[in-house]
Amino acid sequence: MQELFQQLANGIAWGSIYALIALGYTMVYGILRLINFAHGDVYMVGAFAAYYFAIATGAGGATASLPGALLVLLGAMVACALLGVLIEFLAYRPVRRSSRLTALITAIGVSLFLENVGLRVFGADPKFFPQLIPPRRIHLAGGVVVTNHQVTVVVVSILLMVGLTLFIHRTKTGKAMRAVAFHRDAASLMGIPVNRIITITFAIGSALAAAAGVLVGLTNPKIEPLMGIMPGIKAFVAAVLGGIGSIPGAVIGGLVMGVSEYLVVGYLSSTYRDAIAFIILILVLLIRPAGLLGRNVAEKV
Amino acid sequence: MSLLDLENVHVHYGAIHALKGVTIAVDPGQIVTLVGANGAGKSTTLRAISGLLKCSQGSIHFQGKALAGCPAHEIVRLGISHVPEGRIVFANLSVEDNLELGAYLRRDRAGIAADRKRVYTLFPRLEERRRQASGTLSGGEQQMLAIGRALMARPKLLLMDEPSLGLAPLLVREIFRVIREIREQGMTIVLVEQNARMALSVADRGYVLETGAVRLTDRADALLRNPEVQAAYLGGAA
């Protein structure tokens, strides 16, 4: 029983990171019907941006402080928001009116580009992510042990998700975003500037990926330029599992993905940790291709 | 001078030449209807006016200002609202949020609230369902919402594409009652309809479109009496 709860706790922390990445996939897909395969690499850039910010501001190690950590988080999110906007403008906008296959291949190209620029600029050797918050163990009831880093991951993720949900449902821009996702032409007939909304979507999705990159640096402090590939794929599966285009779906999908991974690690073998993502993907595609919360609204006349 | 002037407008969809030199004038306060068979270019004409389609040739002027090259969301700002074919309400948003997005470009909170009240007076059913996701509304209610949403931009010109399509006869009459009421409040309307008899009976002027060109135009009551129009579009003599 203790083992189960321990793995659940680990899985939820790890799943929160998948959920944050999955949100970016699902938002971009919802609005452009594009699988942004470069999204996992934006997450990698987020981790590196935080790494350099932390070194520049001395926010890590002995001089670590909470404001410093928040500043690093914010800096990485802003940097990646700009990167996301740039990617959309330079790579995706020119092929917006082309076929979806063209856009998909463009996305793969952007992904390879970011990975190779990363190898060139950041270097292929893994870097040690500075400790933004001194580690501490927290003993929960029933012998379950979590770290304060895991708690931070979950708390920051929840705050970001709540913030996103409020933004999407309460603000005019958020509602406009949902309108564009539903029908681009109809949205433009309301006077909604569709291009600006798409830009905002990329900025938000990329900022969330950056946050995931910072949080992962906290719990797994070894970062390298190809670190985005696997989590990128898994978060994509999480988005599909939840129902791509659905924001609560992405969160649920991410958590299910993280928990299943840790259950496999705890009860089978860590060898199969990566396999579970693909098993889930196959099962979803076979049993419920629309995903757990996939939209299926019938048109009425 | 007319409120809206289309001069020799051509539109291409790839290789398909959908509009072949359409010239239409709409005077302020009028209802102008475009009638014609499927594929005659009625919807295409509306989509060209509202900026969803680019003209390959010709010009469109609204209040003397050329619309060519304006993106759709800028045209809304100039005072043209388009109720699209098939209604296309934002199904995942509530009725109230749909209306709020209709007023997307406006900043005058008090004016928006007053206009929302006006829409609810026009369509009391919408007020009853204002918190409901609009995808759960009936087809007729969705059409009312689509019209109300367009009015929320406080347009000078309303483009309506097939507002009666797929509705029960009782609802069709309801929609036409509202069209008359909106016009009485001073709105200029361009109405595209399959139901040519209904459309011509509310309109001031009609244009008959055939394969992307204006076949003939006249006062609406004259078109209703025109034997050629009766034979082709009104199902024989009334």
Question: Any descriptors?
Answer:
heterodimer, A: 301 residues, mainly alpha, two-stranded antiparallel sheet, 11 helices, 3% strand, globular, B: 238 residues, alpha/beta, Rossmann fold, four-stranded antiparallel beta sheet
Give a verbal description of the structure.
The complex is a heterodimer of chains A (301) and B (238). Chain A has 301 residues and is mainly alpha-helical. Chain A has one domain (13-227). Helix content of chain A is 71%, strand content 3%. Chain A is built from eleven helices and four strands. In chain A, the strands form two sheets. Chain A has a two-stranded antiparallel sheet with strand order 1-4. A two-stranded antiparallel sheet of chain A has the order 2-3. In chain A, strand 2 and strand 3 form a beta hairpin. The relative contact order of chain A is 0.20. Chain B is α/β, with parallel strands linked by helices and 238 residues long. Chain B has a domain at 1-77 and 192-238: 3-Layer(aba) Sandwich (Rossmann fold). Chain B has helices at residues 42-49, 72-78, 95-102, 109-122, 124-128, 139-151, 169-184, 196-202, 220-225, 227-233, and strands spanning 4-13, 16-26, 31-36, 57-62, 65-66, 80-83, 157-161, 188-192, 205-210, 213-219. In chain B, helix 3 packs parallel to helix 6 (139-151). The longest helix of chain B has 16 residues, at 169-184. The N and C termini of chain B lie far apart (35 Å). The chains are: A mainly alpha (301), B alpha/beta (238).
